[in-house]
Design a protein that fits this description.
The complex is a heterodimer of chains A (260) and B (321).
Chain A (H helix, E strand, L loop, with lengths): L1 E5 L2 E3 L21 E3 L1 H17 L3 E7 L5 H10 L3 E5 L9 H15 L3 E5 L10 H9 L3 E11 L2 E8 L2 E8 L2 E5 L11 H7 L4 E4 L18 E8 L7 E4 L4 H11 L4
Parallel strand pairs in A: 1-4, 1-6, 4-5, 5-11, 6-10, 7-10
Antiparallel strand pairs in A: 2-3, 7-8, 8-9
Chain B lengths: L2 E5 L10 H11 L3 E7 L3 H10 L4 E5 L3 H4 L3 H14 L3 E5 L2 H14 L3 E5 L1 E5 L2 E8 L4 E7 L5 E4 L14 E4 L12 E7 L13 E5 L6 H14 L2 E4 L1 H5 L20 E5 L5 H4 L7 E6 L6 H4 L2 E4 L2 H16 L1
Parallel strand pairs in B: 1-2, 1-4, 2-3, 3-10, 4-9, 5-9, 12-13, 12-14, 14-15, 15-16
Antiparallel strand pairs in B: 6-7, 7-8
Helix pairs in contact in B: 4-5, 6-10
Classes of the chains: A alpha/beta (260), B alpha/beta (321).
Chain lengths: 260, 321
């Protein structure tokens, strides 16, 4: 089975993140890039499905700047077989609609039986791209999964939404997105890290996937940030030490603010 | 006045969800709301939808919306967009509606703005207000292609009644075969506990590593129940398996902005703050006086939660009676 994991490099969530004052895009230059936390679960799930199915291959597909190659190497060191990196200066500032176009066209070029996403990225947090890619490819949207079962040509997932847990089935080829309940992502082993250095990373530009520069990037974005402003930092209020009266003092504060 | 399409949300028992009234309230800031009702029960919901300003209700009573993942609803919305040329399409920031919005945007060549906390219209231009990076930034954004598709964060807009007629119009619609690729074969409805929904709650009480164990975490539920609050948990608690994953507040969990957030035994790492720092009032209880949660708390007590909470719960209960 040809399994492709769409992986995004994002700014590290453990540090303060910001927007570029110039064009209100996410500041990626100033901070370390890491594999989007939720994509680690997608990689793990793809590896598990490949191991169970046998004679399968896991490809990492990333769209992003040169810098994203660190994250691609890490994904390969977890056990993915190869990677495709779509790099093009014209892609900078692409929104979800544009990114889904690029990923869908790249998937058509690489071929796929199963596409696996993390259910959202920790930077933009739109959660739109997996459904958009399913729409563009015209394949079943088996998203927000806490469990994925592949049996022959049929994929069944447990879809977790606000309304409950749905059992959803579709046929391959299909698009899946997974949540962080699904598995425990493995850490790269030393052997894996060494092996990853030799694994192939194919670089594609927009012309390789037949996408026009006029369909992507900040200038052609379908949504636009008009302005952004850092919100004022919260001020620390009163902090008291519990002298046996901590509970009563909080109750007093809550009463004063009419919460009780 | 320009027409604004609003995708109604129902819970598993068929009741109109509160966020639908919030959507109608927001839609009135942009034009005249028309509800899009997918499935049975439009007539039964009519009075409620009218109360919050729905001029029309486009109703399609088909099992396809529940039977297949998001694609049939996106197809219906796309056909209404082309037929009615609305000023915008507003949907809830719930999983299903967001993915419906995603497909609709691709179908109609439109831009989509997610997780809006407000919408405004000025000189024909529609703007959404969003909070980025867990509320560290306020952003105003707009759509440059097609019809603005906007998902609204539940609880962000206060639902306000404004009477209208809610004229129900049955719309002919048949989902295409392409919209029936992901079949829903079973649905286990979310178990509704006695507590309010985490994202819609006025008060949230969250527990962290300081609770020490699944058993220790029970006192968080006790405090929440005394306040009529929802329960939240930090990532450490969820990772340790002390409390279920769907209650996680933070960067990789839910983002909440209640009137009151009580953080108990939570240090307040960036990861957690990103999910709660837009709360109106924050109260923190932690053993460690240096915990970063105190930097953003309106009121903080340095102390052992297992001695502070029992007396706090007692005081709250006394206050109620």
């Amino acid at each position: 089975m040809n399994i492709v994991v769409c992986m995004k490099q994002v700014p590290d969530t453990e540090v303060e993140r910001s927007l570029n004052p110039r064009d209100n895009t996410v500041d990626r230059a100033g901070v370390d890039g890491v594999i989007n936390y939720l994509d680690e679960f997608a990689i793990e799930e793809a590896l598990k499905i490949a191991e169970a199915a046998g004679s399968s291959e896991v490809t990492i597909l990333t769209m992003g700047p040169e810098k994203a190659s660190d994250s691609i190497r890490k994904a390969l060191s977890m056990g993915a077989d190869k990677a495709v990196h779509v790099i093009d200066d014209a892609l900078a500032g692409s929104d979800a609609v544009e990114s889904s176009l690029v990923l869908a066209e790249a998937l058509k070029v690489t071929g796929f039986d199963l596409v696996v996403f993390g259910c959202e990225s920790t930077d933009a947090r739109t959660g739109l791209v997996p459904a958009m890619v399913a729409e563009r490819l015209g394949v079943p949207q088996l998203t927000l999964a806490s469990k994925v079962d592949v049996s022959g040509s049929e994929v069944t997932v447990q879809r977790v939404t606000d309304n409950g847990v749905a059992t959803v089935t579709g046929n391959l080829p299909a698009v899946v997105s997974v949540n962080e309940k699904i598995n425990e992502p493995r850490y790269p082993t030393f052997k894996g890290i060494m092996a990853a250095k030799k694994k192939p990373v194919k670089v594609l530009t927009l012309s390789d996937i037949s996408v026009d520069a006029g369909q992507v990037g900040l200038d052609n974005a379908t949504s636009w940030v008009d302005d952004s402003a850092a919100r004022p930092q919260r001020q620390a209020g009163q902090v008291v030490k519990d002298e046996g009266d901590g509970g009563a003092r909080i109750a007093g504060f809550l009463a004063e603010r009419k919460f009780i | 006045m320009a027409e604004v399409l609003v995708l109604a949300e129902r819970d598993a028992s068929g009741e109109v969800k509160k966020v639908t009234f919030e959507l109608l309230t927001a839609a009135r800031r942009l034009g005249e709301p028309s509800v899009v009702w997918t499935g049975p029960g439009a007539e039964g919901a009519r009075a409620q939808l009218a109360e919050y300003g729905a001029a029309k209700v486009y109703s399609v009573n088909s099992g396809d919306f529940a039977g297949f993942v998001t694609a049939p609803a996106a197809e219906l919305l796309a056909s209404l967009v082309s037929e009615k040329s609305p000023a915008a399409v507003l949907v809830a920031g719930t999983n299903d509606a967001k993915e419906t919005a995603a497909r609709l945007a691709v179908k109609t060549g439109s831009g989509v703005l997610t997780d809006a906390v407000n919408v405004t219209s000025e000189g024909g231009g529609i703007t959404a207000e969003q909070l980025n990076f867990g509320g560290a930034f306020t952003v105003h954004s707009s759509v440059r292609a097609g019809t603005p598709v906007i998902t609204l964060r539940p609880g962000a807009v206060t639902a306000e009644p404004s009477a209208a007629v809610a004229e129900v119009e049955k719309v002919p619609f048949t989902a295409s075969d392409e919209a029936k690729l992901a079949r829903v074969t079973d649905l286990a409805p979310a178990v509704k506990g006695g507590r309010p929904d985490l994202r819609e709650a006025q008060i949230v009480v969250s527990g962290g590593r300081g609770t020490g164990s699944a058993d220790g975490f029970k006192i968080i539920e006790d405090l929440a129940d005394s306040l009529g609050a929802a329960v939240g948990a930090s990532r450490a608690v969820v990772d340790a398996g002390w409390y279920p994953h769907q209650f996680q507040v933070g960067q990789t969990g839910e983002t909440v902005s209640p009137q009151l957030y009580v953080a108990v035994g939570i240090s307040g790492a960036i990861q957690h703050r990103a999910g709660m720092q837009t709360s109106k009032t924050i109260v923190a209880i932690n053993k460690d006086a240096e915990a970063p949660i105190f930097d953003i708390a309106d009121y903080g007590v340095v102390g052992d939660l297992f001695t502070v909470l029992p007396s706090l719960i007692e005081d709250i209960n006394e206050h109620k009676s």
